[in-house]
Fold this sequence. Notes:
By secondary structure, this protein is of the alpha/beta class.
Amino acid sequence: MGVKLAPLVKPQKLALEDLRGRSFAVDAANQLHQFLALIRTPDGVPLKDREGRVTSHLVGLLYRTTRLVTEYDIKLIFVFDGKPPDLKTREISKRRSQRQRAEREYKAAVAKGDMKTAWSKAVATGRLTKSMAEEAQQVLTYLGIPFVQAPGEGEAQAAYMVQRGDAWATASRDFDTLLFGTPRLLRYLTLTGRKRLPSKGTSVPLEPELIDLHRVLADNGITREQLVDMALLIGTDFNPGVPQIGPKTALKLIKENNSIDNLPSKILEQLPPSFHKIRRIFLDHPITDEYDISPGSVDKEGLIQFLCHERGFSETRVTNVAERLMKAQESQRQQSLDAWSRDSSINGK
């Protein structure tokens, strides 16, 4: 779900054109969940193949993700979660309960013929399974888009990759990657979509938002360690937070007391005994250096075999996507070769 930091950040609104040529470490779970939530039939049912297997996540990768690559020369590296920390068990159970409740409410709305409510409930029922993640990796391989398997939280691995310069920013809708130390977070890396505003009963168009960690810390007069302490008070995927403490109150408390350890006992008593372990999850999370982010070649035949022959996709549409992607990758290779030739010529003089 992610920590709620919106009141403390000042995102920079961008257009996709501003991101041309940039590279992103994509929070794969976050992105695939969005596909599962939003790519549905008008009555809220996810897209499926002839055997009833969900394909919404594959549709998103094939038709939406590749457009970012072909139309905007955006370089993507998907980062997949590994084994979740034991402390995340509570959050996983909570999400399961929320999905089950949403499923009951969805069925009730359909029975009443209230399709607007049904759709709003349906988007909360999506579940990313291990097999879906494996299918996504298979499609990415055929598309030639690199991916990295994190040992733990994918957001931590993505943050590390941006820190070392392997990607320009992390792409995720959650603020958690700031806690893991990503220098830049890009929210809403998408071609189309709208963000729901339940309190106002409306929605607004999604626009890419760039958040700079250094600016967040400087604007609020805190360190990253203090930002993590604030998150523990607000609530994270690993603890529920302290009742009635939101972002602004958390900021005030941490700035006044310097560290969560110095807070009044009446507040500390409401934190789990494991809060020091939760802090270490964000500040010292397992990552790996063993990954290859070089783009691969498009395997058009493999893509057609898997998506068309096995999952029922249109062969014409899949072929068109593959050929557009091949053309874009060839153009990128030629540009790199031309740049190398120019540099060699200059150095030769």
